[in-house]
Amino acid sequence: MRTVITLPRLTLALAVAFAALALAPAAGASTSATMTLDQSAGHSAGSTVNLGLDLKFTNSGTDSPQHLTLNLPPGLLANASVDGGACLRTANVSGTACRVGTGTVTATADPVGLLNVPVPVSVPVSFYLVPPPSPGDLAGLAVEGLGEQIGSTAGIRVRPSGDPHGVGVTLALVLPDQLPLTLPLVGHVNAAQISLTEINSTFDGLRYPGTCPATPAALTATVDSYQDPALHTLTAPLAVTGCSGLPYSPAFRVSATRDSGDRQVSLTTTITQAASEAPSRSVSLAFPGATLAPNLASIQALCVNLASGTCHAVGSATAVSPLYPKALTGQAYLTGSASGLALTLVFPSPFPLTLTGSVDLVANSATFTGLPDIPLTSLAVTLVGGAHGLFLSTCQAPSGTATATLTDQNGDRTARVPGRFTVAGCPGASGGGGPAGGGLPSAVGGRGNGSTSRGVTVAGARFSRGRFTGLRSGHPALSFRISAPRLSALTIALPRGLRLLHRRTRAHVALGGGRVASLTIMRGRLVIDLRRAVAGVTVRIGRGLLAETAGLRRRAQARRLTRLPVAVAVRYAGGRHSTLHVQITDLR
Q1: 530 φ, ψ (degrees, to nearest 5)
Q2: Which of 118, 143, 166, 297 has the highest CB neighbour number within 10 Å of its CB?
Q3: What are the CB-based long-range contacts (under 8 Å, 24+) for 453-460?
Q4: Which stretches does DSSP call E strand in 296-353?
Q5: ∠ CA(493), CA(499), CA(502), 5° rounding?
Q6: What value does the CA radius of gyration of the chain take, rounded to a whole number of Å?
């Protein structure tokens, strides 16, 4: 990642006699530098604020800084989803849509070196997020000043797992030591020697880390000069406060399907969080041995050397971050040795991450530690079945509860989240799973627990105010109220003749009495995870998310519908589940 920042051509009203004078030879020998941060805009953990960076250079003779490398500490991240990701597709160095910062570059220039007449130059600049200039770059950074782009586009890169500076962003620049000189009536004459003395910048909307160490993490920089190749290291501490105030309530769900021709199982685990929550530092997933057992034959898929390029993946991983416009997809490998197995997730650039979880065959678990400080709204890992599938099921206990134990980035909070699931493909099992209790079919029927004309109560959860509208017009909507102690999630299954559309889910679901952490459609069911446990919520699934069959609409128009069944699985904060099967009689 390299860029050359050149100052725009400077028109100087100098005497024509000076035009032919040559520059004096370089006589300097060194450059020293200082770096300070301006955090006056705020320093709360996980917040999005502006950060000031002031670099000052003291040069001897005509020397000037040359190579400047900035290493942002882990967790201090730019938002690459600016303007919905459009800035990464088309370069836009005008206006404010893709502008991510502003600053001033200051230098002294000697356009006529023989007379040793330094001229101060101060240029206001703006920084723009643009498409990545090279493969592997996260994004590009363009510098604009006085109406034109200055120099080439810089690449912004994410440091890989194992980097000494930690997973974070690095930016390297090559700074100029000459200024093109244009004189009136004469045109280009020569290049003036310059010495950069200051780069004062403010970068907008940086996401702050989720860790508050006793000794603050530091932004570091290295710099050398044109006449002195020795690197000088600069550091400036980054203050971060309020880590314990970040919300942290991850949700966890599991789905499993047994192969039709053998006992191996394909397994998907999904961890979801709100964008404002603290990321996780460690994740441990434990599975019930009676429902899922290790497939010892999968040792044949052991990858001894990931770098060889000959390893076979045993699954895949998909991560979604609010700071990047596209989902990140990686591969899962069985690594380690027969005496110590591991599950390794490998993501390619622009997030070159390698996440390794130790496998405990006795506990039937995998534990990932040292996860990077990158906010994720979803992390899904799918392990394939087949001969090398890592799990198998005898179907003697087709249902069970997995457990995710997660610790936040700051290390001061741990969440233990159950995930009830049923292995699809086992005799008599309806399959699937989810955060509110597995086993709900994609369509429901029968008379259920009761009619909603008087409400339905099951295991402390009460369903009331159930109503379908718009059935006769072809624009169905559903609303109802769920009251339950410490309600944390719902899974809603619809009757035959109604289905959920996979588009703009959040725009068509209204929730009263609680705040949504995530909305997903899984196996034809709507899964609602709440940010925190509440005593009850009112749910409205509006027009635009529900679709009905022509047959159901005709029955509604002919007034032949008297009731429609709905199933709602409820998950409580302590992990307990209950399911309500109700008949809604209020049809409009």
Answers
A1: -95, 150
A2: 143
A3: 453/585, 453/586, 456/580, 456/582, 458/578, 458/579, 458/580, 459/578, 460/484, 460/485, 460/578
A4: 315-320, 328-337, 340-346
A5: 105
A6: 30
Per-residue pLDDT at 2 exceeds 50: no
Q: Are strands 564-572 and 477-495 parallel, antiparallel or unpaired?
A: antiparallel
Give the model confidence (pLDDT) of 376-385 as tens digits. 999 999 999 9
Task: Spell out the residues 6+ positions from residue 454 whose beta carbon is closer than 8 angstroms to its own.
Answer: none
The Cα 525–Cα 569 span in angstroms is: 10
Task: Write out pLDDT tens, residues 447-476.
Answer: 444 555 567 887 778 899 999 999 999 999
Q: 352-386 in b/e burial notation, b at 16+ Cβ within 10 A? A: bbebbbebeeeebbbbbeebbbbbbbbbbbbbbbe
Record the pTM: 0.69
The per-residue pLDDT for 3 is: 43
The per-residue pLDDT for 438 is: 39
Percent of the chain past pLDDT 90, that is, above it, reads 57
In one letter, which amino acid is 223?
A: V
Whole-angstrom Cα distance, residue 296 to residue 344? 18
Q: Which two tokens stand for residue 300?
A: 């044949």
Q: Is 245 exposed, middle or buried (0-12, 13-18, 19+ CB in 10 A)?
A: exposed
Instruction: Name beta bridge partners: 157.
Output: 170
Can you give 507-552 as a three-state secondary structure string? HHEEEECCCEEEEEEECCEEEEEEEEEEEEEEEEECECCEEECHHH
Return the minimum-mean-pLDDT range out of 227-236, 369-378, 408-417, 430-439: 430-439
Could you tell me which of 285, 274, 277 has the C-alpha nearest to residue 368? 285
| 237 in Cβ contact with 217 (< 8 Å) | yes
